[in-house]
Amino acid sequence: MFPRLAEHYRSVVQDLVMSLQALANGLKDHGITATCYSCGDGRDGHGASFVADLGDGHMVRFLVSDFGISWVESRNGRELVKLEGAEAIQELQRMSNLLHQGHGSRAGSSPMTTAEPL
């Protein structure tokens, strides 16, 4: 049972890495500075670091690896929120939803600035 669970977790990490890369590209298309760096080479470890600058010193960082998943939100270098696991993934989904809602907005406007702050 444990090897199967470990393999399932690796699959979740791989899916998250691909989703983070797509989210970073989507945010860039909307004029929001975002980066996603992936690491690892498949089965020997996989992960990614995603960072988005939402303006006014507001930053979010999402880390995913074989060791865990975390979301850290900060303003002016001070940590505001730190979430782990499923809660971190929910915040990532919220950011993705905001991006999709802003997709139909006028060109040049940021979907993150028109919604409530993260």
Work out the count of structural domains: 1
* Structure summary, number of beta strands: 5
Which structural class should the secondary elements be placed in? Answer: alpha+beta
Widest sheet: strand ordering: 1-2-3-4-5
Total count of helical runs of at least 4 residues: 3
Low-confidence stretches: 104-118
Radius of gyration: 15 Å
Describe this structure in words.
This protein has 118 residues and is of the alpha+beta class. Strands 1-2-3-4-5 form a 5-stranded antiparallel sheet, with helices on one face. It is globular, with a radius of gyration of 15 Å. Helices cover 42% and strands 35% of the residues. It has helices at residues 2-29, 85-102, 111-114; strands at 33-40, 46-55, 58-65, 68-75, 78-84. The chain contains 3 helices and 5 strands, in the order H-E-E-E-E-E-H-H. The protein has one domain (2-97). The N and C termini lie far apart (38 Å). A hairpin with a 5-residue loop joins strand 1 (33-40) and strand 2 (46-55). The model is unreliable at 104-118 (pLDDT under 50).
